[in-house]
Amino acid sequence: MKLIDGKAISQQIKDEVKDKVAKMKAEGKEVALAVILVGDDPASAVYVGNKKKACEYTGIRSESYELPADTSQEKVLALIDELNNREDIQGILVQLPLPKQIDEKAVIDAISPDKDVDGFHPVSVGRLSIGEKGFLPCTPAGVIELIKRSGIETEGKHCVVIGRSNIVGKPMALLMLRENATVTICHSRTKDLKEICKSADILIAAVGKPKMVDRSYVKEGACVIDVGIHRLEGKKLCGDVDFDDVKDVAGAITPVPGGVGPMTIAMLMKNCAESLEA
């Protein structure tokens, strides 16, 4: 069984971005990311802190806008409009979730697709679905890098994605199609879920249920990618896959933590570095 090390692979990507950013700086080009955080959600604050650290490491300049929880939607949209028009800002990221008085869709739609480093804008999604160049959503793009850099063949393989969210499941399926896999998307209404999963050469779990996928879902030797992250009692983290039960059956598997998680921020940095070319 091969353990897919997301920490090591994300470090490789951050080092590549660092080199690229240094070369751009030598040519007089600077990459800058604006991060907007509304409210004081503790998990969001941690994510934003991690993004700032990654920017520091890679040489990307970050500007942080930390707004109070009662900020109006108009104020957030006005800030996005201002950042869209600033030539010295290449990427704009709004940390989700937003307080309930703000419509997430309106905020995502307001970001210029050419600065949408999260890859959530409808134009970015459209570009992905028809194979045009554009920003890829960070978590699914990170999964692709994990698979490729671990030497796992995708062409002609059967990939099953469990979950159909706009952030992971759907873009994941599109990216695996781009890698010439044959893709099946499963969800809460899928019949014979276990049988379908058992036919997968590559099984990607993005379902949001702790340890749902046990060995009865997994074909001998399959590559298992766990996108889920859950905090159990006693602060222990786990994924959508029951790692201890599956690891003896899988040919390759990502751990939680240390698998898909670190890849998301690494791919965000990669998107930022590519934003000057957008």
- Calculate Rg over CA atoms: 19 Å
Listing every helix as H and every strand as E from the N terminus to the C terminus, the arrangement reads: EHEHEHEHHHEHEHEEEEHEH
**Oligomerization status of the protein chains:** single chain
How many angstroms does the end-to-end distance come to? 39 Å
Give the strand order, joined by hyphens, for the main sheet: 1-11-8-7-5-6
Largest sheet: 6 strands, parallel
| CATH architecture heading of the largest domain | 3-Layer(aba) Sandwich
CATH topology of the largest domain: Rossmann fold
Structural class: alpha/beta
Protein topology:
Blueprint (H helix, E strand, L loop, with lengths): L1 E2 L2 H21 L5 E7 L3 H17 L2 E7 L5 H12 L6 E4 L9 H7 L11 H9 L7 H12 L8 E5 L6 H10 L3 E5 L6 H6 L3 E4 L17 E4 L3 E2 L5 E2 L4 H4 L5 E2 L7 H14 L4
Parallel strand pairs: 1-11, 2-3, 2-4, 5-6, 5-7, 7-8, 8-11
Antiparallel strand pairs: 9-10
Helix pairs in contact: 1-10, 2-10, 6-7, 6-10
